[in-house]
Specification:
Length: 232
């Protein structure tokens, strides 16, 4: 269980009321990015729902029942995390942004080249270019989902190109809802269609260096019920 000192507030405004819970910032961030929901005892610092967490003003059971149709703490916590927002302290936001920045620099250094001489860019050069472009890192978005916009901002400063891979995907319709957003966050959907038997087929273009992460995500979200083919 996360301590109150380390917890942050997750908040949801619904039906004219504000509902808040104290959550582990890292676990909450993982859930917001589509990860599995952890044990409630690991997620919450206090297993209560508040109208004002700072004041310790707990939400009445009848109000929870009316708004969420449940008084179950896990059900309500899921709703708050999935549809609400997380309130970070300045220190927490800076730490998460710095962690994301390092991952983004590593991704760019690994997957990008200078198209004028076909050589890779050193991480230090990428970091300087990102500073010059005044790129703002979103602490709640995955590094992969921010790559395209960052590349666009870097191109006026340094010549840079990312090697791309095209991958065809085929999976059951039941996986579409939880998969389509993740697929789009990795790259650009070039084509998609539905088969007569109700399967979703998609052609996506992603950074070549993200293939392993992409395949891992597909298998995780579909429990292995997916077919893929690398086209280039």
């Amino acid at each position: 269980m996360v301590s109150l000192d380390d917890a942050v507030i997750a908040r949801l405004d619904r039906d004219g009321e504000r509902f808040e819970i104290f959550v582990d910032p890292d676990l909450a961030h993982s859930v917001k990015e589509g990860g599995p929901f952890p044990e409630i005892s690991d997620m919450l610092a206090v297993e209560d729902v508040f109208l004002d967490a700072h004041k310790g003003d707990r939400a009445p059971s009848d109000l929870l029942k009316k708004v969420f149709h449940s008084t179950d703490i896990e059900t309500i916590s899921r709703a708050i995390l999935e549809k609400g927002e997380i309130q970070l302290t300045t220190e927490q936001r800076k730490r998460m942004q710095e962690e994301k920045r390092k991952k983004i620099v590593a991704l760019l250094a690994k997957n990008c080249i200078n198209p004028t001489n076909k050589t890779p860019h050193p991480p230090a050069r990428i970091e300087l270019a990102m500073e010059e472009a005044k790129i703002n890192i979103d602490p709640f978005k995955s590094p992969e989902s921010q790559i395209n916009s960052i590349l666009k901002a870097l191109r006026p400063i340094i010549p840079i190109r990312m090697e791309m891979a095209q991958i065809a995907i085929k999976t059951k319709a039941s996986h579409y809802g939880k998969l389509v957003g993740e697929v789009r966050s990795f790259g650009r959907v070039l084509k998609e269609e539905w088969t007569k038997t109700g399967e979703w087929i998609c052609l996506v273009e992603i950074p070549a260096g993200l293939q392993i992460d992409f395949f891992d995500m597909l298998n995780s979200r579909t429990h292995g019920e997916v077919e893929t083919k690398l086209l280039n």
